[in-house]
Amino acid sequence: MNVQLHDTRALTADGANRAARITVARGDGIGPEIMKASLRVLQAAGARLDIEEVELGEKVYLAGHSAGIEPGSWDSLRRTRVFYKAPITTPQGGGFKSLNVTVRKTLGLYANVRPCASYAPAIATRHPGMDVVIVRENEEDLYAGIEHRQTDDVYQCLKLISRPGCEKIVRYAFDYARAHGRKKVTCFTKDNIMKLTDGLFHKVFDEVAAEYPDIANEHWIVDIGAAKLADSPEAFDVVVMPNLYGDILSDVAAQITGSVGLGASANIGEHVAMFEAIHGSAPRHAGMDTANPSGLLLAGVMMMVHVGQPEVAERVHNAWLRTVEEGLHTKDIFREGASRERLGTQAFADAVIARLGQMPQVLRPVSYVGNPPVPARAPSPRKPTEKVLVGVDVFVHSTQGVDALAAKMQGAANGRYELSMITNRGVKVWPGGLPETFCTDHWRCRFLAKGGAQFNKPMVLELLGRVHHAGVDFIKTEHLYSFDGVPGYSLGQGQ
Ligand code: NAD
């Protein structure tokens, strides 16, 4: 594949002494405390940062901005291209849009990267050998949020998967593995059921994997893959998956490391990147100096690698490992007998600062200096195909039995079109349905041109006119296309 390469690091810091411009939001709840602690550690480690601050979250929501961000903040994000974000509180009640989804989609942050490592014996976990990185597609899948109620009974959410979307995320996973010296990339999908959407993700995974012979690859069906990940996470290295599975399994993976409070994530796009802890604003802990700043600090470590200051990232991460292995713990990870001292948020930051330049003795040290950058790439140019209309699925709202519906639809077809099947929730119920199949009021009637002739758009319009005159309540259509001779639609279940 021919790809264009953008190195976003070069956009943010291109010289050893040049400060990286970043946008900082201190957030809500425990956000301001953990951001203060994290920035203190980064700056003590020699981070060269030129900081712009923006207000974001609860106050902004309540001031009438439905996505929790002021219009002017976008200018800062587009200027600095790097966003260090503390957690925010989403106010209760309707009408508030998810700030994270808005920022990710508006700025094209397609890759969500979550390292999930356990820190045994310093932090108790059932999985001491775990060191997994979840790479989640961040922009598409069911998260397009395109939903409709279509009948009394049935609601729909559209799952959109694109070839460029798959290619960008899969390639990012392999580039990440290569840059971080990782050995294997695993793909999770449910393509035994969703043969076109998840099937595309799997197909693109196989194509891209072939370009990285130095990295092992494998595919798991997501259900058994998830079970294996929860049970034996040490069997995985980098795992890439579509948005919904990634959303769920990255939380599972973070939880089984021993503490969600330590989780960090990066959201990477071609132009902008955002770094944050995976936990929320924990409002009940706000202002008490008890919150653990580690998730945000480790997100800061990922940010320092991204802006081309890997030596700072390495100093901070190794000092943090040293602090944690010495049993200096915040309340959430403190265990009587196992921990040495319980520290507040700022005292924990001081302990990390005091260990800058030291290496962990028990936990494995990290190294970032010398790693190649992970490029954010544009997808391959689109390949035009020969797209031929071969039929149409007409969806209808009906409470009549299937035989009565079939009779009306055959009447509408008027010998010109062939009614090839009727399904209910995907299962074929005509011809030859079983009385045991439960049917809702939402039916799909598949029409093909008689004798394998081609369909065209005027035929679709004419057919819909006939269906309407037959008194059938059609609610939507889906065109059936073949692309270079390959059907671009699934068969009915049982067909
Ligand atoms: P949460 O992650 O804020 O807190 C859940 C619990 O986890 C807390 O009660 C606390 O016991 C513990 N916890 C979390 N982070 C901790 C830390 N750093 N140190 C110590 N303990 C910690 O989840 P929630 O209570 O469901 O959500 C609170 C608010 O955060 C909500 O308004 C939610 O919308 C928001 N939220 C924001 C983000 C984000 O900004 N990225 C993410 C998730 C939730």
Shape: elongated
Q: How many runs of DSSP E, i.e. beta strands? A: 22
Approximate helicity band: 25-40%
Average pLDDT number = 92
Uncertain regions spanning at least 5 consecutive residues: 1-15
| CATH topology annotation of the largest domain | Isopropylmalate Dehydrogenase
| Cα-to-Cα separation, first versus last residue | 36 Å
* Count of discrete structural domains: 3
- Derived structural class: alpha/beta
Strand content: 15-25%
CATH superfamily of the largest domain: Isopropylmalate Dehydrogenase
Rg of Cα set:
26 Å
The first-level CATH class of the largest domain is given as Alpha Beta
Corresponding CATH architecture of the largest domain: 3-Layer(aba) Sandwich
Helical stretch tally: 14
Instruction: List the ions, cofactors and other small molecules found in this model.
Output: nicotinamide-adenine-dinucleotide
Could you give a quick summary of the protein structure above?
The chain is α/β, with parallel strands linked by helices and 495 residues long. Helices cover 32% and strands 23% of the residues.
